[in-house]
Amino acid sequence: MNSQHWHIPATEGLSFKLMKGQTVRITDVEGEQVADFVAFNAHDAKERLDPGVTLDTVRSKNLKPGDIIYSTRYRPLFTILSDVVGRHDLLLPACRPEMYEVLYNKKDHVSCFHNLNQALAQFGIPAAAQHIPFNLFMNTIVDSDGAVRVERPLSRAGDYIELRAEMDLIVAVSACPCAESACNGYNCTPIAVDIL
Ligand SMILES: [Zn+2]
After folding, report:
1. What band does 3 get if pLDDT is binned at 50, 70 and 90?
2. Which of 77, 106, 112, 178 is a plausible cystine mate for 100, CB 3.0–4.6 Å?
3. pTM of the full predicted structure?
4. 12: CA distance to ligand 1 center in Å?
5. From the CA of 59, how far away is ligand 1's center (Å)?
6. pLDDT value, residue 64
């Protein structure tokens, strides 16, 4: 099986097909960069990666190698094979233009929501009303009193996570374009994707 490699420039998105049994590696090229990651059943786009179902099933927000990422229909989509960082987010939605308006008073900001919809359209997947991705490298902290905050990613240059597909999938990845917060260390940088 041929390996494939993509370099996602800072603030941009990518989509690709991943067949059952293939492994994808997502790399934070320069460090402290979040990659919003979504996936759909390649044969029925109504079934998709579901962070809520994954939390419900794995019963932890701190996933580790061997854990399964689940679909809306409680079926395995991915198995985590390796993870250099060990800190990702299953709680927050993709950034979208309205978020930049409400939180930062900026209009028409590039967003993961737009990047993901645009990338998925290449495979005929209709624009979603909302994306709640598996936010790779995103360092969301939930305090014991319930307070939620996003801190700088723990990922350093070259850190990665590897996921094995458990069904045929259409995957999209967005190199998050938010430079306004600690989410990406106040600086947007590229993401690399390899099918191994
Ligand atoms: Zn984003």
Report:
1. confident
2. 106
3. 0.97
4. 10
5. 25
6. 97
| Residue ranges per structural domain of the chain | 4-195
Ligand 1 centroid – CA 2 distance (Å)? 30
The alpha carbon of 172 and the centre of ligand 1 are apart by a number of angstroms equal to: 13
**Max CA separation in the chain (angstroms):** 49
How far does residue 33's CA lie from ligand 1's centre (Å)?
A: 10
- What is residue 66's three-state secondary structure? coil
Structure token digits, residue 166? 């458990």
Query: What does the pLDDT average to over 110-132?
Result: 97
pLDDT at 171 exceeding the cut of 90? yes
H helix or E strand, kind and range, residue 175: strand 169-175
φ, ψ of residue 38 to 5 degrees: the values are -130, 155
Could you tell me the distance, in angstroms and rounded to a whole number, from the CA of residue 32 to the centre of ligand 1? 13
| CA 94 to ligand 1 center in whole angstroms | 5
